[in-house]
Design a protein that fits this description.
Elements lengths: L2 E3 L4 H9 L4 E3 L14 H17 L5 E11 L2 E3 L5 H11 L3 E11 L4 E12 L4 H8 L21 E5 L2 H5 L3 H9 L6 H5 L2
Parallel strand pairs: 1-2, 1-3
Antiparallel strand pairs: 3-4, 3-5, 5-6, 6-7
Helix pairs in contact: 3-4
């Protein structure tokens, strides 16, 4: 059975391929505004569910939605809107431990299940030159918190405690568990056939 990925993220697509899930891509178009008083874990869980349910209302089948955010001092750091915004985020993350919170939701249009995963990431001390050079690579522009652990931004990461795949954008253990509950095989199921 084919899954529908409610995301245009190439990173999430690569992670699903990694666990041998067959899927089509139909990105969700939802309002991603943080609600007043909403905790980061509630925020990403709501967005993951809304993405999955939005796409499920248009296409029949099992739909997987996900959302990731970077959190520092209980403040959500979204995608940078420009260089100054990016520089402020990277300066704040420099030498600090922050949280990466990712939610995954799976729905068949009737039943919806979701999980939230939080990982801690510690950055090295960043120089102004490193921050500026990284911006000019183009990598930070579409990433929560202004960096990608799976790319060039990996050199900023001193330590990670938690799920690496979740920091990239899709917690694989949790995603596999949810998919199996909807009778979607992952590599473990395929290997035993």
């Amino acid at each position: 059975m084919m899954v529908i990925l409610a995301s245009q993220s190439p990173r999430r697509a690569e992670l699903l391929k990694q666990i041998d899930v067959r899927f089509d891509v139909h990105p969700a178009d939802i309002d991603e505004t943080l609600h007043s008083g909403e905790e980061p874990s509630q925020y990403v869980q709501r967005l993951a569910i809304e993405k999955a349910q939005s796409v499920a209302s248009l296409y029949p089948g099992v739909v997987l939605g996900s959302d990731t955010t970077v959190v520092l001092d209980n403040r959500v750091l979204g995608k940078p809107i420009d260089f100054d915004h990016y520089r402020g985020m990277l300066n704040a993350l420099s030498g600090q431990v922050h949280h990466v919170v990712t939610a995954v939701a799976v729905t068949d249009g009737v039943k919806t299940l979701s999980k939230v995963v939080t990982s801690d990431v510690e950055f090295i001390e960043l120089s102004p030159d490193q921050i500026e050079r990284y911006w000019h690579t183009g990598e930070p522009s579409d990433k929560a918190g202004g960096y990608g652990i799976q790319g060039l931004g990996a050199v900023f990461v001193k330590r990670i405690s938690g799920s690496y795949s979740s920091v990239v954008g899709l917690p694989l253990a949790e995603s596999a568990d949810l998919l199996v509950q909807f009778d979607i095989p992952v590599w473990q199921s395929i290997a035993t056939q």
